[in-house]
Structures are given as C-alpha cells and as structure tokens.
Input
Amino acid sequence: MSRRQPAGKHLDRQTFTHGKLVGVCGKIIASPPNRCPLTALELMSILRVQDLHKSYGKGDDRRPVINGVSFELRRGECYGLLGPNGAGKTTTLKLCLGLTAPDSGSITLVGRDIPGQARQARARIGVVPQIDSLDPDFSVEENLIVYGRYFGMKRADIVARLDWLLEFSNLAAKRKAYINELSGGMKRRLTLARALVNDPDIIFMDEPTTGLDPQARHMIWERLKALLAAGKTILLTTHFMDEAERLCDRLAVIDHGRLIAEGAPRELIARHIESQVVEVYGDAAPAWAPKARTLAERVETSGETVFCYTNHAEPLLHDLSTAEGLRYLHRPANLEDLFLKLTGREMRD
Ligand SMILES: Nc1ncnc2c1ncn2[C@@H]1O[C@H](COP(=O)(O)OP(=O)(O)OP(=O)(O)O)[C@@H](O)[C@H]1O
Ligand SMILES: [Mg+2]
Output
C-alpha cells in the first residue's frame, strides 16, 4: 500500500507540522515507556485473536455475546470492526485490552498474552473508548499529563509532547479550559489526543468520530491516515461506512458475536453485492417494486424507497425514464449496501 511504510518499519519519533505527521530523525519528543525491541512474530502480527467466546449473565440469564471470533491485525494496517448495535464490537475490544476475561480462546497483543499480561501490553497501546472518560477536575492539558503519568511517563516527556497532541486534536486554543467548558466534539478530540500520549504502536478506537461534525470528522480522518503512514496500527469500530471505506485496509463484519465476513472493503463489496444500485423514491415507488423485480437481480424495499441491486442497470434506467412520479439515484454499490445485506434491515436493540 503506497501510503504506508513497509510492514514492520516503525517510526518511533514523530511530530505533527502543517497537517502532516513527519518522522524527525534525532528529534526526541517523548520517550515511550517500557518499549522493548519487537519480536519477529510481532512484526508480522500485532494482535492475534483466536476462537474467542464470552457470555454475560448468570444461570438462566447467561447469554453468549461473543461466539468464536478469530482475526489478526498486521502491523501498520487499519482494521475495521463493523456491526449493528449490540453485535459485540465493544466487548471484543474490551477482551483484546484485557478489561474483561474471555470464557475461552486466546489473545496475543504486542507479543503479550491477554488478559494475563495486559498491564505490560498497555504501555504500547492507545485507547479511544466508546464513551469519553475525561477527568472533569482537570483542564485539557492536565488531562493529558495525568493520563501520561498513569503510563509511568515522566512529566517533562509528556509536556514536551503537549503541543503536538493539542495540534493533532485542534485544541491548542482550549489548552487551559476545563472539561465542562468543552463541546461534545472537543471532548471526543481530546479523548483521541489522550490515546496518543504514550506514543502507542496500536490504537483501539471505538467509534472515534461519533458526535463530531463533518469538518472535525474529515480532520480526524486526515490525522488517522497520517498515523497509519507513520506505521501505527489501528483497530477501529465505526457506524460510518464511508469512514470504514476510507480508512480500513481490511475489515470484519460482526453480528450476534460472530464474524460473518472479512476482507478489504472493495473486495468484500465485489464478492457480496451487485456492482450497481438504483434507489427509487416517491409515493409510487412501492407500487413499482414488482416491476423492479423483473429488471434487477435483487430488490429491497425500505419505507418509500426501493433499492434495486444489479450488474446491468440499463433496463431499469430505461423503464424509469418513462415512469411517472418516480425519482431515482443511480450509484455504485458501497459498504452500506454490503452491511445491510449481511446484517439485514431490521432494527437492533
Ligand atoms: N457488562 C455487560 N453485562 C451484560 N451484558 C453486556 C455487558 N456488556 C455488553 N453486554 C451485552 O453484550 C452485547 C454486545 O454489546 P457490545 O457493547 O459489545 O455491542 P456493540 O457491538 O459495541 O454495540 P454498539 O454499536 O451499540 O456500541 C449486547 O447485547 C450487550 O447488551
Ligand atoms: Mg460499542
């Protein structure tokens, strides 16, 4: 992949200038704590999850939540976990981080067995939790310092990194502000900056851009691409399909605690979905749906929209050109189409 370092090439030191993450030979911004040389296995696979099972509840209420999940992250890639609400994404991340123990299965993260060696692994890991957990008693910069101290970093090393972190999150002007003075989007950006305090090798991001406006989301995408270009690995959950398509080298779709598809976004779309979609809108659309079924390989109706999936759109488009009271959009198939095909259109709890 052209934007990336070759697998295994790791930039230990970096700075963020003019919107770009730049490796700066010799300029040490922070000394990451407890960093050991990488083993050959870690160079290939930074996270390996095998046949994970997890249930919650007791007695008759015991319910499986993760049902035999296996996947592997290569160093330097962005790997997405997509799935409906309650599919098991956050639980999978918590298991990987050693925050909850599996019933069975194995996890190796940065060469450490999880959960047994989770404490040692954490020094090389960044986490953006689904729900912000910033300390309201501290200012923006104090939050970053306190978090870095938690990793055993020297205060001076964290302070030397503050400018970069604040620029990364576009929060330089809020440096002295307290958490209750920040908007929801600012808090989310601070949580992202906080995950990078210890210069982690791999960052777990649980819906990192939820609650951000489109401007901030685009900014964060650029920043995350720069992190990837610098050799970082990202495990990302998101409900934004365009985010997954832009950022992920590979992704897995998870549903009911099972991994139901895995691959590069475009490859998955090509494997599971017809190449073109014609969305047909309007009061007359549901009545037109039976006709659509004779012209498209697959048709789905959602409210007053008829989704026609096809590899040959011409017959559909010809029919629509003369149909009264119908509007339509002709577009290539995308990740949302794949997601809906694999997980269905029914609402989840
Ligand atoms: N501590 C817990 N105790 C009991 N059940 C739990 C616990 N944590 C999660 N669950 C259940 O496990 C299932 C998976 O939850 P999880 O948070 O992993 O879903 P998710 O894929 O992250 O969903 P979302 O997209 O809504 O964040 C859900 O049914 C949830 O209710
Ligand atoms: Mg979740």
In short: Residues 214-229 form the longest helix (16 residues). Residues 175 and 258 are 42 Å apart (CA to CA). The radius of gyration is 23 Å. Residues 274-332 form one domain.
